[in-house]
Design brief:
2 copies of one chain form a homodimer. Chain A is an alpha/beta fold. The first copy, chain A, folds into 2 domains: 162 residues, Isopropylmalate Dehydrogenase, CATH 3.40.718; 158 residues, Isopropylmalate Dehydrogenase, CATH 3.40.718.10. Chain A is 45% helix and 17% strand. Chain A has an 11-stranded mixed β-sheet with strand order 3-2-1-4-11-10-5-6-9-7-8, with helices on both faces. In chain A, helix 1 crosses helix 11, helix 3 crosses helix 5 and helix 4 runs parallel beside helix 5. Chain A is globular, with a radius of gyration of 20 Å. Chain A starts with a strand and ends with a helix. Chains A, B: Belongs to the PlsX family. Chains A, B: Pfam families: FA_synthesis (PF02504).
């Protein structure tokens, strides 16, 4: 099992990335890591050289680079070389905390789509509040600005495969994100998608779900178009962050009383933060490609990298992508 | 100034509605209220009869009724009679906490659209965290399942009028909700809307805004299509509610320590809740109609009714709708 790592992607690269890889090595000593980037910088954080190969390159893609151009022009960039390793069969999966758009482009143009999958989408496992181990898989979170009803059905199948194989959920409940739960609700896109999802035999479609019920665990897999998915993801993140900061200032405004109260509630507040932290489920999968292509937040730290390596390990071990390739290649 | 009130709409009607009207009467003794619904039930909560007229009717629209059918068939329903009073000029505005779809239908089919406004939208003032009096006006929150770029420009104009006249904000910053801040981002709808908004002289367009920055006050007016607006609104509400309940259980899980901590933080937590409660800004306006048509949550209590009456009072006093009628009637 070989994972190609873009060691230069992300705000804290290469330190956070390499430190995370070192943590993951302890969990999974059998994984071989190919680290792409500046050798001297990467080496600083390599505490155990076993199963680590550094492939030196000076070039990297920055967060400001225009994605498609960057992929085409920066042919020696760490991300591009990592993607090419997957294409050539030298690695089984790629991981990056770098420029999301560029990774999407590298995934599409270098790793390549699974046959018959029209529009790979971005999928994350989001938290279910009140269930520390719970979560739901949502896609598309923004790989596409526009989707057709047929794409949403493919997302339902992809999400079902992921929830079953990687998250070990039997017959995962698939919900269609809509502006009401009634069958007749929605835009032209969601009405047609509802119809197609109802007819799809390989999934357990439970109907429409509303954005306000997502964090309560109303479904195991939630499908939506990339524009809406992106807006919903950012709304959830923005609201959670705003509330945490509101909580903090509300406490600080109370002076000594607030400090004392906060001290007593330290464990409770930490527990709350942990429950909201969905990086424990790993990163976002660009799903629908011939190999696992995984993205984490640019601000990712070593722990999140470690969780993501675990996720990739499970994806490779369960062969979820190879099974999808088989499923879709046999379709005509 | 006369307000037609659907006294039978909402989960706590008529009690919460009539009690709220009684509170509002103290703030605005000059408003005349027309209360539509069961006279004997309404009378129970009328503590001051001055400027109160009860128009008895036995019929009402329930939350399960199919909106358009209900409006057409239940011709004596409290909501329908209230809307007709506005149409006939017997009242200046209508307020209901009942079936949202039915109120939208009553607004469109009975009160009627402003000339040249194609698709009235639902607008609410949402909270800005860290600014107790701050807020942003967002529309369309779901009156339409589908919108054209031109509609979003009309929402920008409507929202600007509202922010200026009702909320007293000079040159309100108008943002387009999009999946990135760069000009080139988005779906076909948002790309075209961006272009049209940039050319609209009567607004202060600041470009694209992302859902994660809404609660930080990135814009005073945020425009989006009804499907996305609905999903974002529900994501924000759902996340805020989930977090409040997570905070509660996290505290309870800590036993005595948690209880003590919560006691010390009581004021802080209450302050936090108040800041999130956007009912202080009033209800949702079905905007683009010939008169103010205002909806509040079905679970609304007397205080929210009071805030909503204040909002309607400001809308009538500032003549925001009449000015919009003038603005749009002169367009050809």
């Amino acid at each position: 099992m070989k994972i190609a790592v873009d060691a230069m992607g992300g705000d804290n690269a290469p330190q956070a990335i390499v430190e995370g890889v070192m943590l993951a090595k302890k969990d999974f000593p059998e994984i071989e890591f190919l680290l792409y980037g500046k050798e001297t910088e990467i080496k600083k954080y390599v505490t155990d050289e076993k199963n680590i190969t550094i492939i030196h390159t000076d070039e990297k893609i920055s967060s400001d680079d225009e994605p498609v151009k960057a992929i085409r022009r920066k042919k020696e960039a760490s991300m591009v070389l990592a993607a090419q390793a997957v294409k050539k069969g030298e690695a089984d999966a790629i991981f990056s905390a770098g420029n999301t758009g560029a990774l999407l482009a590298a995934g599409l143009f270098i790793v390549g789509r699974i046959k018959n999958i029209e529009r790979p989408g971005l999928m994350s496992t989001m938290p279910v509040i009140g269930q520390p181990d719970g979560g739901f898989d949502m896609m598309d979170l923004g790989a596409n600005a526009e989707n057709k009803p047929e794409h949403l059905v493919q997302y339902a199948v992809l999400g079902t495969f992921y929830a079953e194989k990687v998250r070990d959920i039997k017959q995962p409940r698939v919900g269609l994100l809509n502006n009401g739960t009634e069958e007749t609700k929605g835009s032209e896109l969601t009405k047609k998608a509802f119809e197609l999802l109802s007819e799809e035999p390989s999934i357990n479609f439970i109907g429409n779900v509303e954005a306000r019920d997502l964090l309560s665990g109303v479904a195991d897999v939630v499908v939506t178009d990339g524009f809406t998915g992106n807006a919903v993801l950012k709304s959830i993140e923005g609201t959670a962050l705003s509330m945490m900061s509101l909580l903090k200032t509300s406490i600080l405004d109370e002076g000594l009383k607030g400090k004392l109260g906060a001290l007593l509630l330290k464990d409770a507040l930490r527990g709350m933060k942990n429950e909201l932290d969905y990086s424990k489920h790993g990163g976002a999968v660009l799903f629908g490609l011939k190999a696992p292509v995984i993205k984490t937040h640019g601000s990712t730290g070593p722990d999140a990298v470690r969780h993501t390596i675990r996720q990739i390990h499970t994806m490779l071990e369960t062969k979820v992508v190879s099974q999808l390739v088989e499923h879709y290649e046999n379709q005509e």
